[in-house]
Design a protein that fits this description.
Strand content: 25-35%
Bound molecules: coenzyme A
CATH class of the largest domain: Alpha Beta
Helix content: 10-25%
Number of domains: 3
CATH topology of the largest domain: Aminopeptidase
Radius of gyration: 22 Å
Number of strands: 19
Shape: globular
Order of helices and strands: EHHEEEHEEEEHHHEEEHEEEHEEEEHHEH
CATH architecture of the largest domain: 3-Layer(aba) Sandwich
Structural class: alpha+beta
Strand order of the largest sheet: 1-2-3-4-5-14-6
Largest sheet: 7 strands, mixed
Number of helices: 11
Amino acid sequence: MIDVRALAESEFRSAHDLFRRALLLPPCKDDAWENTRGRYELGRVLGAFDGGELAGTAMATTNELAVPGGQVAAGAVTGVGVRADRTRRGVLRGLMRAQLDDAAKRGEPVAMLHASEAAIYERFGYGLASRHRKVELERARVVFRDDAPRGGQVRVLDWEAAISLLPEIYRRCVVDRPGTIGRNEAWWSGMRQYLGDGCLVAVHADEDGADDGFAVYEPKPGDGGTTVDVHDLKGADATAVAQLWRFLLGIDLVDRVVGHVRPLDEPLEWWLTDRRRCAVTEVADDLWVRLVDVLAALRARSYGAAEPVVVEVRDAFLPDNEGGYRIGPDGVERSTAEPQLSLDVSTLAVLYLGDQLPSTLVAAGRIEMRDPAAVAAADRLFATLETPWCGTGF
Ligand SMILES: CC(C)(COP(=O)(O)OP(=O)(O)OC[C@H]1O[C@@H](n2cnc3c(N)ncnc32)[C@H](O)[C@@H]1OP(=O)(O)O)[C@@H](O)C(=O)NCCC(=O)NCCS
């Protein structure tokens, strides 16, 4: 029998160590725990007990998610782990049940996470809502085109000097793209421990001297030469982002620059005289989203100009969501009209931020098409201007 309850503060560290062991990592050292504990919110850290012993844990932090045309309250689910000797007996299922019920009680229409494996969370109604890519460039062969955006100044700071600036730059400059989430103080102090001692920060200021972008990067010498790993690069506009890349690709003695967790539509290769110098070496899962309250979540985003479409949603894990929804540019209502499209709530999550169009998921067999005329309308309703991207680990 698995019992799930919210943990007391005194139990957070053992939950964190259980999570680390599940990820095959050693227990947390004291200083690392000091940087991590702030992310644990009382009431949102769950423990699953089997025979009185902690067998698994999952937590969520209170956050917001940018969706097309707005923002929605969204719990950021993380710290999910089950003891290796207690897996496959329903511990995760019990945790997910308690966590989604809690999110519903809190009035959070959406839950979100980064998944260690793609096969785990769909059964609980999560769908892959955004993806990211990894890019690798041989520095000596990279030349920027004359028409690539240019302007402002880049200055280099060490982490300690930069940390007082970054949260504010992030808050001011990085807000609208669907998939963007908030980064609170606890997130920034937790970030530090994942970076090596040689980590540096480049800050971009625009022509008026206002900071509008940053790159967190780490030069690493190796057998094949020196690589700069770019862990985090955000800017208010294309000029800030291009100028940061120009800086990183201009550092002397560097052989390779690797951009991790970059947006799919970043025009880096289009800024270069030879696009092939920017190799995309990976496209991977970014944010998984769960529509906890389908009506509220659908209402939180805007839609393109098209005829409204009636969509039937199936949701075995949270059946209150099941039924028809009429989705149109003027809003979303529950509907008892004959559905034109039918899908699982996890598939709706794939459409939610605009990563995939309904027509793609019809072709994939993930959306049942009852009225073929509705597909083109649904594409126009769900299409977004920007590709979704989270780019924030948690
Ligand atoms: C992933 C993990 C949390 C699953 O916990 P668990 O208690 O074994 O999961 P449950 O027994 O509740 O399984 C629920 C369902 O998910 C399936 N499932 C669980 N883990 C799975 C996995 N890694 N791959 C595929 N299916 C999985 C189970 O087979 C079960 O399916 P069913 O509903 O059809 O019976 C656990 O294996 C773990 O801690 N792994 C290492 C750490 C990790 O990856 N954490 C997730 C971080 S995002």
